[in-house]
Amino acid sequence: MSTTFAIVGAGMAGGKAVETLRDEGFDGRVVLVGAEPERPYERPPLSKDYLRGEQERAKVYLQEEGWYAEHDVELRTGVTVECLDLAQRSVVLTGGESIAYDALLLATGAEPRRPPIPGADLDGVHVLRTLADSDGLRAVLDRGGRLAVVGGGWIGCEVAASARQRGLDVTVIEPAELPLLRVLGPELGAFYRDVHAEHGVRLALGTGVEAIEGSGRAERVRTSDGATIDCDAVVLGVGVTPRTALAEGVLDVDNGILVDASLRASVDGVYAAGDVANHDHPLLGRVRVEHWANALEQGPTAARAMLGQDVVYDRVPYFFSDQYDVGMEYAGLSGPGDEVVFRGDPATREFVAFWLRDGRVTAGMNVNVWDVNEHIQELVRSRATVDRARLVDPDVPLETLVA
């Protein structure tokens, strides 16, 4: 009887997993189930060039449409999974069909948070996670007008930048004192505040949202400090939560599906990868990473683990963001209390920021400085104590610090 591998979740992690299974020579049955009507695609363009209409739809997909049939992958799009029967090693689809598996990968991703704001269900209130979401928001950008963005995290900032580049009047509402404060700290939060302000974004910082109001559709946002912001549409960008519903009660779950260093879950034959996986990282301890690169690399690692290979996922977390003419790459995982030092002057928009703890680099972010992120990752991975003066000196090659 043929071996069957089932992958639930047809996003980046699931899509890369099935590619890897075939690349590694697995010739058994592969079933890829996705709730969206789309084949696997990349999400970063959805808040950037695809949203702005600068990238055609075909470019976001991982593979050409015919690839899955050509590689004998059963791609089930627009299909939801009702439950997991781990005792019987089967996945039960809505409608009752059961798919027996020998190994199962859960790559269900995450879903946007929808805070209980009065009026959040009005027409004209958007979230951004899927291609359909991006299509709906692109239509808003095409019409122009006024956009209110609730949340100053990565999605909020990138959507704000794309909307301003398309000429919309944009206001970002963020309860913290700075955008990106939670992830980057005050120094870099101030940097991005200034970038957006210089491009004409109004920033309502240190205030929350009391309600979204309008006659049948969003027309204004009432903030917690009593202000009213008129708008034609609203984007909620207040983070995501891992999609763990299938795992609840049958697997160990705590801020995601708990997996070991090899992405194995708490039940034999079950693996998890991508946004939903709370991973025991050999370098960083337990961590759940919500970025594109993590799904890109964890999917193949999980596939190899399913094939019985001795693998460990130990890549340093990495992500990138493009806002206006400011491109950045970030590697590592900083924490509260880490000291920030700069190689170069942030005022020039070309610099590298490093986060330090006990003389070691926990993370680094290169802004409009290229071909250095690999060295930053090596610094983080090495856990070496570095000479601060040499770290901030642009004339000292980063690779020499690793040595």
Tell me, briefly, the overall form: globular
| Largest pleated sheet | 5 strands, parallel
The number of distinct helices, counting runs of at least 4 residues, comes to 9
Termini separation comes to 52 Å
Helix content range:
10-25%
Overall SS class: alpha/beta
Query: What low-confidence regions span 5 or more consecutive residues with pLDDT below 50?
Result: none
What is the number of E strands? 26
- Round the Cα radius of gyration to an integer and report it: 22 Å
Global mean pLDDT: 96
Strand content: 25-35%
Strands of the widest sheet, in order across it, are 3-2-1-7-19
Tags for this model:
403 residues; alpha/beta; 5-stranded parallel β-sheet; globular
Write a structural description.
There is one protein chain. The chain has 403 residues and is α/β, with parallel strands linked by helices. Helix content is 23%, strand content 29%. The chain is built from nine helices and 26 strands. It has helices spanning 12-23, 67-70, 131-143, 154-165, 181-198, 292-306, 373-382, 388-391, 398-402; strands at residues 4-8, 29-34, 73-77, 81-85, 90-93, 98-100, 103-106, 110-112, 125-126, 146-150, 169-174, 202-205, 209-213, 220-223, 228-230, 233-236, 240-242, 257-259, 270-272, 277-281, 285-287, 318-323, 326-332, 339-343, 351-357, 360-367. The strands form seven sheets. A five-stranded parallel sheet has the order 3-2-1-7-19. A five-stranded parallel sheet has the order 9-16-10-11-12, with helices on one face. Helix 1 runs parallel beside helix 6.
